[in-house]
Amino acid sequence: MGCCILGRLFGTDGVRGVVNRELTVELALKLGLAIGTWFGTGSRILVGRDVRVGGDALMHAVIAGLEAVGCKVYVAGLAPTPAIQYAVRKHGFDGGVIVTASHNPPEYNGVKVVGSDGVEIPREAEREIEEIFFGSRWRYASWKSFVWEAKPWPNVIEDYVDAVASMVDDEAIRRRGFRVVVDAANSVGTLATPRVLQKLGVKVYTVNSDLNPLFPGREPEPTPDTLRETRRIVAELNTDLGVGHDGDADRAIIIDEKGEAWWGDRTGALLAAHVSERHPELPKRVFTGVSSSTLVEEYLSRFNIEVRWTPVGSVVISRMLIREGGIAGFEENGGYMHPLHQPVRDGAMTTALFLELMAHEGVKASELFDRLPKYYAVKTKVPMPREKAVEVVNEVKKHFSGQRMVTIDGVKVFGDGWWFLVRPSGTEPVLRIMVEARSPEEAKRLAEELKKLVEEIARSKA
């Protein structure tokens, strides 16, 4: 089942599945019962969602489960995930539940659980909820206490917009008179990011800004390929910047004024150096998943910033950032965590910070990215069940046993001027392949060879 790819129920980032196939209203109700039992009777829980199909029904099923075990539920409604996370922490909620599948294809939805700090609950807590779920060990409230009615929680987006705008040098940004294209992927990012930028004096152009659960403008995952039309618009309008969000707006893929889209590890490296200079009191370290490029180490070593490699998954990075302290956490997929604001992925915050960097440096976006070591990336994926993907990874390890490698999540192999990562997805039944090299031709060749090898191994395991 799609919602049981990793750890039985929770995947890399919450519970996900195809709506009305793996992720049904019945499952959402039981999830609400299990989550509410884990939080405890009387807990104040904020619930919200993105625009995805089935979101309203699934959210109300979760609410029914939470209330049945005695939780006091407040409803944020449609809002970006980071806006809901911010509200949970700011207003002292015991936790939050967000109905979203982030970047997944349109037929998916999901359920994400956050703690009182606004951060996704740790893996151990997910395991405890799974035990309650699979053992049907929820504790129903007595009929006398089953009187709570879910109440709307106001100003979630307004408070978030104000908070993000307050974290950057608005005067410097305002002086530059920036023009920015925002592609919100027909989802909740359109409710916040344009307002943040307008508050900073930016002239905003919106693309895919109407709310539509079918995502007619493009796929919800922001990549150089899915953002091709938006990149063209940025270049043709001669704007200073473009940004592409995913379905719940916790990611931001930056597009420079030439229409070039940049992966999040590149953006993360630039922002980390900038934030470290602005806030020297922060520990000089960053946390990033093994899927990020080795150029992160090359670039940040110039600023004496340590890079800590982590397994893929924003939950892991957030929790390490909280526990050990640092400048930032980030992922190659466009997730950037600014701990002075909140230690979670935040698309609007990423966009505002990048504008601050451009304003302070007085240069174009493309000139900032030109500072980075040059690597060219190719990403692909091969559909297969998780069990087979794990077997394939083990065979890839054997095949490249003579090379330097990191094996904390899949296998990352380092060569002379290239590297690749092969890992099972935590959100989809696919094996992900990432390759980087010093030239686009070499990256493409290596990716094709690696994909062929992976497919041969998979066939041999049939």
Automatic annotation (TrEMBL):
Originating species: Pyrolobus fumarii (strain DSM 11204 / 1A)
Protein family membership: Belongs to the phosphohexose mutase family.
Domain Alpha-D-phosphohexomutase alpha/beta/alpha: 8-135, 158-259, 263-374
Cofactor(s) listed: Mg(2+)
Keywords of the record: Isomerase, Magnesium, Metal-binding, Phosphoprotein
Domain Alpha-D-phosphohexomutase C-terminal: 381-451
Domain of life: Archaea
Name used for this protein in its record: Phosphoglucomutase/phosphomannomutase alpha/beta/alpha domain I
Any one GO molecular-function label of the UniProt entry: magnesium ion binding
Matching Pfam families: PGM_PMM_I, PGM_PMM_II, PGM_PMM_III, PGM_PMM_IV
A Gene Ontology BP annotation from the UniProt entry: carbohydrate metabolic process
